[in-house]
Amino acid sequence: MKITDKDVIYEDNHLIAINKRAGDIVQEDTTGDLSLEDMVKEYLTVKYNKPNTAFLGVIHRLDRPVSGMILFAKTSKALDRMNRMFHDRTVSKSYLAVVRNKPDKKSDTLKNWLLRDRKKMITKAYDREVKGGSFAQLDYAVIGELDGYYLLKVTPLTGRTHQIRCQLAYMGCPIVGDNKYGYPRGSMRRSICLHSRSLGFVHPVKEEPTTLIAQLPHDGFWEKFDVLL
Q1: Following DSSP, what letter does each residue of 16-51 receive, concatenated?
Q2: Which pLDDT tens digit goes with each residue over 13-37?
Q3: CA separation for the pair 107, 144 (Å, rounded)
Q4: Alpha helix (H) ranges present in the chain?
Q5: Is the pLDDT of residue 118 over 90?
Q6: How far apart are CA 167 and CA 126, in angstroms?
Q7: Averaged over 162-186, what is the pLDDT?
């Protein structure tokens, strides 16, 4: 599927934010599937009638089964500055997750050490420091309950591979559809109920506070939770 104007959350001369569909890959991988990066390049090239392919810089990534906010740079200046902000953790991020099991607490901070199993391509969580592990921390809050499902707002304070998926599963609340991390069944759509909801940062060129929000997917399930937001 091509990128259209409906997929664009925000665009100016320096940045473009896309509401990523679950199942899309951000950058090309060994599958050979068309990447979101290539789709956005094509969108910009056609939209602005560029004789050559438009410049596009990948600032951050989302797991393939995750939907929501993904930000790209349209200039090298914006790319360098946004990369620095992500590295320095001056960008605020929030996610929405749907789980079946009710968390023990209405809100909490999760602190774990995560260890990546590269053979199985999963991340394991521990409640103590482990050799080769990385410290991970996130905040979560239960927004509400709907038809036996619980909607959580998740704010990661570190950026580890599969961090949210792994930490929520470790506390006994695997994300709906995420059978890789303990949910009983996977999704036919290659998706899990984890949505990158918002990014907050100081614009790399305009130097203005900027908050971007990605609307929930319209897939027959996610949009029901709009009433809780």
Answers
A1: EEEEEPTT-BSS--TT-PPBHHHHHHHHHHHHTT-S
A2: 999 999 999 999 998 877 778 999 9
A3: 11
A4: 36-47, 76-87, 163-170
A5: no
A6: 9
A7: 94
> Cα 189 vs. chain centroid, distance in angstroms?
17
More confident residue, 96 or 188: 96
Residue 63 identity:
D
Measuring CA to CA, how many Å separate 65 from each of 7, 57, 164, 180? 17, 21, 13, 11
E strand residue ranges, the chain: 8-11, 15-20, 57-58, 67-73, 92-99, 107-117, 122-126, 134-146, 149-156, 194-202, 209-213
Contact, 166 vs 149, CB < 8 A? no
Per-residue pLDDT averaged across 162-178, rounded?
97
Residue 139's φ and ψ, nearest 5 degrees, are: -110, 145
* DSSP strand pairing (194-202 vs 67-73): parallel
Among 220, 184, 212, 221, smallest CA distance to 68 is for: 212
β-sheet bridge partners, residue 95: 154, 196
In a 10 Å sphere around its CB, with 0-12 CB exposed, 13-18 middle and 19+ buried, how is residue 58 labelled? middle
Q: Please name the residues in contact with 206: beta carbons below 8 A apart, sequence gap of 6 or more.
A: 12, 14
Please give the torsion angle defined by the CA atoms of residues 149, 102, 194 and 181, in that order, rounded to the nearest 10 degrees: -120
- Residue 188 CB contacts under 8 Å (≥ 6 apart), including other chains: none
Per-residue model confidence as pLDDT tens digits over 83-100: 999 999 999 999 999 999
